Amino acid sequence: MEIRMLKYFFEVATTGTLTAAARKLNLTQPALSRQIRALEDELGVQLLDRSKKPLQLTGEGIYLAKQAESILNLTEKTSKNLKQRNIIAGQITIGAAETSLFTTVLKGISKLQDQYPDVTIQLISGSLNDMLESLDQGLIDFLFALDFNLKGQYDFIDLKSTDTRGIYLNKEHDLATKDEIIGEEIANYPIVTSRSPIWLDYLSLITNKPTEDLNIRMNFNLIGNASLYPAFNKEILLLGIEGLPVGNTVKFIPVNPQIPSHAALLWKHTQFLSSLHEEFLYFVNQEIEMI
C-alpha cells in the first residue's frame, strides 16, 4: 500500500466527497475514483459505501482513515526532520502526564529552543496506556510518565524530584483545617480518584479497605477537569498530586502514609538517536542535574 494511495483515500474520508477530494488533490474525479477502487482491490475490502448520499465510509474505511491519519502525520514529520538533518531543527512529540514535575522537562525545552529556534514541540496528554501505545508505534518520540514500573522495556531517564500525594478538598470541608490527612479518614467520605490501577491500589493501601468498599463517586482518566469538582462539591475528597492549578476555594492537604510519585522520561530502545533527540536529552539531563 503506497503512501500516495493512502493520502488519496484520507482526503476522500476527510472531505466527504470524491469531487472535493479530487479538486484538492488536483486530480479528475474519475481518476481518483479509480485509485480508490484499486486500493480496495489491493486490500480486499470495501472502503466506501457508494450507495448512500452523501458518501459514507464502511467500518473498514473508518478504521483505515484513523490509521491513515497517524501514518501520514508520522511520514510528514519524518520527512521534515530528515530534510533538516544538517541543522538541529524539526519536531519533537512528547506524551506527558499532568504533573508539576514536567517543569524540569519544560526548562530543558526552553533552553533547547533558545539555542535552536527551528525546533518545535508537540505536547500530548493522555492516559498512560494510550501514550505507551503511541510510543511503541512511533507516533510520539518521548513519554513523560508517573509511577511506571516497566521501564526495562525502554530507554529512560529518572527524575530526582518526586510528587507529593494528597487530597484536594473544598475549604469548607470537615477536614480542611488539618495539616495532613490520615489515610483511613478518607474512607469516611465520597472520593474522586484516577482509574489507574496504581492509584486504586494506593487508595486501598492508605484506607486499609478494598476499593469496592469505598464510596468512589468519580473516576477520571486525566485529572484536569476532575480537579475542578471540589470547588462545587463540599463533601468530596479528590486524590491527586500536589501542584494542580485550583481556585481559591480549594486546598491541597498531604496524605499520611505518604508514597511519593516518581517520574521518568521514556523512549524506545534504539541504537541511533537523531541529533535533535540527542540535544533534547542533553538539555533535559542538564536540568535534572541541577535539581
UniProtKB/TrEMBL annotation:
SUPFAM superfamilies: Periplasmic binding protein-like II, Winged helix' DNA-binding domain. PROSITE patterns: HTH_LYSR. GO terms for cellular component: cytosol. It comes from the Bacteria. Residues 1-58 form the HTH lysR-type domain. Keywords: DNA-binding, Transcription, Transcription regulation. InterPro entries: HTH-type_LysR_regulators, LysR_HTH_N, LysR_subst-bd, WH-like_DNA-bd_sf, WH_DNA-bd_sf. GO terms for molecular function: DNA binding; DNA-binding transcription factor activity. Belongs to the LysR transcriptional regulatory family. PANTHER family: HTH-TYPE TRANSCRIPTIONAL REGULATOR YBHD, NITROGEN ASSIMILATION TRANSCRIPTIONAL ACTIVATOR-RELATED. This is LysR family transcriptional regulator.
